[in-house]
């Protein structure tokens, strides 16, 4: 729940903060927008009268922001598309909406893809938040809802600044749906035997030579554990 369900929002911005040990690979922007303020409305696939509009903004350590104005919906932006050099370290990724209609919902959500800095081992953490400047009537409705809610830890009222933050004003939902993302990077195993072997053989050949034309293929998959067991059996037979 946020204060943009009934009224268009004056400002709407998603903020994705990137761990310093992760390198942005690409961004898939949201798309397939519908009007959905609840689960029942989501199932109706109600189209919006006008799709949202937003700029894709990248904050880069030590450099001016990169701004893709009026970014495409449901589109893959690679590092090359975004004008990033090999050494550019993206610290924040923002979707800064220039038009954010009431009830907007993306059936295809935004996705961020990263690579790990070479040689890094340990934990990484990315953080997500949403900043909204609601319509005045939306602020009044939100604060009234908070006042009438018995569980005072579930929501927080909007302060005089007029800014609603997902993490602060709706902490329960943020915690269950959009909390900080963690991963642990472990060393890549070395000298580890393969878990399986795959053999491919063309059936139509002459002394190992294959001629142009139609052919058939045989694929053989053998699990390593089974192969080791077969080797053990062979050794047992030799011992006998």
Task: Kindly describe this structure.
The protein has 240 residues and is an alpha+beta fold. The protein folds into two domains: 11-185, no CATH class; 196-239, no CATH class. It is built from five helices and 14 strands. It has helices at 39-42, 136-148, 166-169, 171-177, 224-239; strands at residues 11-17, 22-28, 31-35, 53-60, 63-68, 76-78, 90-99, 104-108, 111-116, 122-133, 164-165, 181-185, 196-202, 217-223. Strands 1, 4, 5, 7, 10, 11 and 12 form a seven-stranded antiparallel β-sheet that branches. A three-stranded antiparallel β-sheet has the order 6-2-9, with no helix packed on it. Strands 3-8 form a two-stranded antiparallel ribbon. Strand 4 and strand 5 (63-68) form a beta hairpin. The mean pLDDT is 86. Residues 209-240 are annotated as: Disordered.
Order of helices and strands: EEEHEEEEEEEHEHHEEEH
Number of helices: 5
Helicity level? 10-25%
**Class derived from helix and strand content:** alpha+beta
Number of domains: 2
Span between termini = 74 Å
Strand content: 35-45%
Q: Mean pLDDT across all residues, rounded? A: 86
List keywords for this structure.
three-stranded antiparallel beta sheet, 240 residues, alpha+beta, single chain
């Amino acid at each position: 729940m946020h204060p943009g369900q009934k009224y268009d929002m004056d400002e709407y911005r998603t903020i994705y903060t990137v761990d310093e040990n992760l390198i942005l690979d690409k961004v898939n922007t949201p798309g397939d927008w519908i009007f959905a303020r609840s689960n029942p409305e989501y199932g109706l696939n109600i189209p919006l009268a006008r799709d949202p509009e937003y700029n894709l903004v990248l904050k880069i350590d030590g450099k001016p922001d990169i701004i893709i104005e009026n970014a495409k919906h449901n589109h893959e932006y690679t590092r090359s598309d975004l004008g990033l050099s090999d050494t550019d370290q993206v610290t924040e990724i923002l979707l800064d909406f220039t038009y954010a209609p009431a009830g907007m919902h993306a059936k295809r959500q935004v996705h961020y893809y990263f690579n790990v800095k070479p040689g890094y081992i340990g934990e990484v953490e990315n953080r997500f938040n949403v900043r909204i400047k609601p319509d005045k009537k939306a602020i009044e409705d939100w604060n009234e809802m908070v006042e009438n809610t018995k569980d005072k830890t579930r929501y927080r009222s909007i302060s005089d600044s007029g800014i609603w933050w997902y993490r602060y004003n709706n902490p329960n939902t943020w915690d269950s749906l959009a909390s900080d993302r963690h991963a642990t990077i472990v060393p890549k195993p070395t000298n580890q035997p393969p878990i399986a072997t795959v053999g491919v053989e063309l059936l139509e050949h002459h002394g190992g030579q294959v001629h142009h034309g139609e052919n058939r293929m045989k694929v053989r998959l053998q699990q390593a554990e089974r192969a080791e067991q077969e080797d053990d059996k062979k050794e047992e037979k030799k011992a006998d």
